[in-house]
Amino acid sequence: MEGIRKEELKMPMLRVKFQCPNCQGKLLEEVVIDAVIGTQIIEISEDGDEINYGKPLYAENGHVDRYQCNTCGLILRRDEDGEPCALPIELFEWLTVHNQYLQR
Ligand SMILES: [Zn+2]
């Protein structure tokens, strides 16, 4: 691949304007499972029951389980009663089929 830099191969990005077909919620979330997550610890309560966290430090080894509506939990599926979308291309196809707004 001499002469071709990585930046030149990057596809243009489209902004996702999600609207849930079930509840009209607008926040689309990615759910990652099996991750190892490190988080800074700031405070602990005097009874040892509660921790206040600071910055996320790292998240490793996770993989996408599904995409879903953050408001009602509707899971985006590849087809009716199908498996959850779990790859970017499957999400893209769902957004296209459901006439979700993709904006350059
Ligand atoms: Zn919803």
Account of the 3D structure:
The protein has 104 residues and is mostly beta strands. The chain has a domain at 6-35 and 62-103. 13% of the residues lie in helices and 37% in strands. The chain is built from two helices and six strands, in the order αβββββαβ. It has helices at 6-9, 88-97, and strands at 15-17, 28-33, 36-44, 51-60, 63-69, 101-103. It has a two-stranded antiparallel sheet. Strands 2-5 form a two-stranded antiparallel sheet. It starts with 5 loop residues before the first helix and ends with a strand. Zinc ion (ZN) is lined by residues 20, 22-23, 25, 69, 71-72, 74.
Strand order of the largest sheet: 1-6
User: First CA to last CA: what distance?
Assistant: 28 Å
Bound molecules: zinc ion
Helix/strand-derived category reads mainly beta
Structure summary, number of beta strands: 6
Order of helices and strands: HEEEEEHE
Question: What's the overall average pLDDT, rounded?
Answer: 90
What is the count of helical runs? 2
Instruction: Provide the low-confidence segments as ranges.
Output: none
What global shape is seen? extended
Question: Nearest-angstrom radius of gyration?
Answer: 19 Å
Helix content: 10-25%
